[in-house]
Amino acid sequence: MRVNHSRRTAAPSRSVIPRRRQAVPEPRYGLLRRLGRADRWAFDRVAAARLRGLEYVLPRLSRFADHGVLWFTSAGVMGATGRPRLRRAALRGSIAIAVASPAVNILGKQAFRRKRPVVDLVPPIRIRWKLPTSHAFPSGHSASAAAFATGVALEAPRRVAAPVAATAAAVAFSRVYTGAHYPGDVLAGVGIGALAALGTRLVWPARPPVARVARTEDAADAVADDGTGLVAVVNPVSGGSGGATAAILPGRPELAVELLERELPAAEIVRLGPDEDADKVFDEAAGRAAVLAVIGGDGTVNAGARAALEHGVPLLVVPTGTFDHFARAIGVESAAQAIAAYRGGRVGRVDVSYVTPVTGGAAGGAAGDQFGEEERLFLNTASLGAYTELVVRRERLERRIGKWPALAVAAVRTLRHSEPVALTVDGRERRVWLAFVGNCVYGSRGAAPTWRDRLDDGRLDVRMIATGRRVPRVRAVAAVMAGHLRVIPGYRAWRATGLEVASRSGDLRLARDGEVSALPAAVRFGKHAGALAVFTPVDAG
After folding, report:
1. Membrane topology for this entry (predicted)?
2. For the residues of 159-224, what is the DSSP string, one character each?
3. What is the pTM of this model?
4. Which 8-state DSSP code applies to residue 107?
5. CB atoms within 10 A of CB 91
6. Does 472 lie in the same domain as 409?
7. Of the candidate ranges 82-86, 184-188, 227-231, 443-447, the one whose mean pLDDT is the lowest
8. Residue range of the domain that includes 322
């Protein structure tokens, strides 16, 4: 085969150098660059803005929020009102700040180390603060503002939560307006603060503002514009009133009476004397009343409820006690709200629980039957064991040192000295350190939970710490306070319509709605479903 050598592949006249490919940035870095440019552009727009009147307000507001001063001051004011919902809101907001602040200032800023903005475009009139030396991302002021506002919104009524939220938004905006942060820093801080506040619900669930009462009726016939037919029995010493300060400042009961006399001038006011039989006074008042009002705490409301049930009249609760658990459950937290509920004429029917000695026959009647003389009623809780001892010790001390110091001292002494009680519960022998029986199911955790979702579910909520050995005291009290009772051996909880308890060592001491009484060795707990007619706010569920 002949090969043609005349056709050869021509050599290239110049060397070919392959083109180097340009590095393509990863998508995430490109996105971060775009976000950074947008962040700086937004900062420049805010810096160039001229908002009349805010040039002086926002810098001062920003400085007032330094170190949480604005929010802790607000929390103090809310707590000083004495309103339970506002106290809870202030506490939840403060806890949220305590979580959000270290998360931002210790973890977030050290992790990102973003530099502060250049403030050349910010007018000097706005820069009335010392330039921060910490990193910019995330904004600590914004985190604290969002944490407090969100915590307040979880508990407080809208008329309080809305202005707090508006103030928090103003603080967050002021951080950009004064040149302290980029908008992205502020948004990140707001997100962290809101999450911190929402996270508090994991260990402390937010309580519903009002327990629902489905069965309602209209009591307009019993309501008069001037209060005709309303008989109000007031306990002048409820809520710690009547002590050394009574001669200087009027207590909550007297303030409630003044408001009632001004708003309902035709209402009859009956004051309980220190040596009078409360049951007799309430019975006589209910006998001539179209509506029976109670001005006092949970113990006084308990006595009024008995009289209202026996005479078939609706009950109006005017809270002036220390805790006012029942009034808060139906959504009445002040005398003004009680008067508004009366004028609204909306009456709901709630369950009433009782405890009665066990005899040969049945104890207690069905709902709507005449109530037995031996029945001891309770609207909130009945407790056995350590809590009863705590109440007795507190009552011995409170006249000398005040209710709250007495409660603290009594808790310490109870922790040191209380022992389990030998009981037979529904036929089973137990050694009980603490037992709680609630009127309707309580939604919160703990040995003494404080809120209910309904007041007409027909059930008893039973919670008990029973042990066969000495109770681990510090662990038990810590679990009771924190609400995580499952960490205590022997904790049991169940729902029932009835319960029998017998003491193997003698008579029982029982605390009903905060009042301690002695009972025979064997008792039965039961319910009168929907028995009590009580005025509730018009907007109650």
Report:
1. Multi-pass membrane protein
2. HHHHHHHHHHHHHHHHHHHTTSS-HHHHHHHHHHHHHHHHHGGGTSPPPPSS-B---EEE-GGG--
3. 0.70
4. I
5. 17
6. yes
7. 443-447
8. 224-344
